[in-house]
Structures are given as structure tokens and as C-alpha cells.
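Render this sequence as a predicted structure.
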Amino acid sequence: MKARTFFLALLAVVSLPPLLRAAEAEGEWEPDVYPQGNIFPSFLIGTARVDLPEELFAVWEGNHLGDPQGVIGITLAEVKAGSKIEVTVKANEFMAESRLVQTVKEDRTGLLIHPKIAYKFDALSKVTQAVPLTITIALGIDGKSEGEKVITTTMRSINDCLFGVEEAAEDDGEARTSDYSWLFAAYVNENHPLVDTILKEALDTGIVSSFDGYQGGDSEQVLLQIFAIWNVMQRHGLKYSNVTTTAAEDDGVYSQYVRLFDESVKASQANCVDGTVLLAAILRKIGLHPALVLVPGHMFLAVDLDDETTIGLETTLLGETDLRPVKDRTAAQLKKIETRRAEKSWSSFESALSVGTEALEAAAGKIASDDLSYQWIDLAEARAAGILPITSPKKD
């Protein structure tokens, strides 16, 4: 299985533009925040530089004006051709005042309008728990004020990863789900300063003498590079922790709690997603080609060993072996301990390879299908598409 063969194809299949269902506005216009009054900082940061054709990225289509990837705006019940529309989203702690001014070319009903929002990304990155946020929006038509309206939204934590939204039923009565699982790629931060620290520690183990990615042309050496990183993360005492629930929940809006890189390292805890995005970040840093593999209720890692071979790695097995330092031991005792630890670490690595590769083979057919519960997220493709890594917030 090739790691780079699926990402764009999957986006084309499952990230189709959400179908706009015109809301029954109680007045002439109403504020609108997608999805269902939630704002996800991870989504806004991760997609800040995404600018793709609509067949590859979820954009608004049809009866819409403004930012094709917008999430904050209004629904306008009715407007005549030639009308000059002015929509203003007022400034708050997370965005500067943002405005759209545009002339409508034809009569419209149920028109959705999204100004391009000037977000304060540093402030968004510091949201660590869900909080209510009041957004004020003003509308003007042909120079006449139509008033201001307020909508109270939920600003979600930076750790909340949106991965799916149930959309309104189509004309045939069938509802569908918009897939955003590719947003998990934003939690892979290969640029985090701790990555270099971990790589230095991995070199200090002596398992490999350098991290040269695929340059040596030896798949066994590539595997040893992966094992050296596996080994040092075990030395950090990284344990499996099944923390996935978000503090805010809405029917039809699916999200999962994901730790940022330094949070997993410092807490020595990781769920299946945390461990997978953490290892993927380090592997990308040394020039390897990792991918995130989603199966129902679980995520694991895949990585190319060479042009022909892709392996799976079950990251939840990292915590099966405790390699943390042992105090007050003689040199001879420590040597024996280290020998046993190396053997135990390799044994756990082999188990992770076996379980992960078996799961990868079992999922291969589903990944290539339209089943949204199976996803292949190629990180090289995600970066090429403009999906940015989420950086840890700066300390005040």
C-alpha cells in the first residue's frame, strides 16, 4: 500500500461542499455560525492557508456570497437584484472587525453571506477550555442599516478536533455527513522544538548513528530509525490514556480531544490519536512518509519503509514497557537492566508492528471505499494542501 495514493482521492469523495439548506429566518435576517453555533480554533488555524478547488475542500456553494470557507455570517431571507449588501462582524477578543460589501446581481432568497474574518490566531491557540462567545453582526442594504444582532456561540478548546458534521436532509429526505477527519493532520507538529530534543535523545541510545530518512536506501535502517524514536518515547514513560471526550457536545457535531505535542510529552500520556500524531511528527521531521489511519473508534500510524513497503504501527502499545531511569544502581546492574530493557522495548515494537500492519491490511479495502469510518490521511498531501500544524500557545 502506498502512503501517498489516498489523501486527495478521499478529500474528493468525502469532503464535498456542504449542501446549503436555507434556514427559516424568523425575521428578515439571522446570524449564522457553522457548525451549529460552534467555533473550532483548530479548524480555523489548520485551514488558514488552505485555498483549494471546491471539489477537494468543503466550501459553500450555490446561494452564497463571500468567503467560500467561511463559518461566521448571516442568512438573509430575501434581497433584490442590484442591492448593495454590507455585513459587518464586530471585533472581539478572537477577531478584528471584518466586513463584506457586495452588490447582489440577481434576486435571492435564503442567501447565506460570509465575510472574510480577520482572526487573531494567537488568541485562538490559547483557548484551552470551551467558553461562550458573543458575536455581534450588523447588516446594511443600500446604505440603510438593518440593525445589529447577537449570537451566542461556543468557542471550543484548541484540543477539540472537529471530524464530522451531520448536515440537514437533502431534497430526497436523506441526511449526510460532511467529513473533516483530515483536520487531525493539523495536530501533527513536526516543527515543535521538543522534536529536536527527542531526536538527540534517540541518537544517544546508540540504536542508530544518524537520522537520514530514506537517504541510505536501506529499509532495515529506516525501521531502526523508527525503533530508536519508539525506544526514547518509552524512556519518557509515555503511557496509554483513553481521554477522548470533549467538554462541549452537540448532536450532529463530532469532535475528539487531542493533546498537542508538548502536552503528550510532558504529561507522559497519550490516547491512540495523541500517540499517533506525536510519532508522525517526529517521523516527518527525519524525512519519512507517515500517514494517519482511521478505523471505527481508533487511529494508528502507517509509514513507508521504501517505495514498495508500508507498515502499520499500533501506538497504544508504547506504554507496554517501562524504560524510565532506575536510581541508585551500580554500573554492572545498570548494564544488565539496559540489556533487558532493549530486549523488552524491541519486543513491544515488534508487537506494535504486527498489530498495526495486520490492521492496515484489514482496512485497505475499506480505505479505498466510500465508508467514512475508514480514512487515510497522508501528511505530505495535507501539508501540500495547506493544512498547517497547530503550534503550542505562547506563554504570556
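Summary. The first strand starts at residue 29 and ends at 33. Residues 20-166 form one domain.
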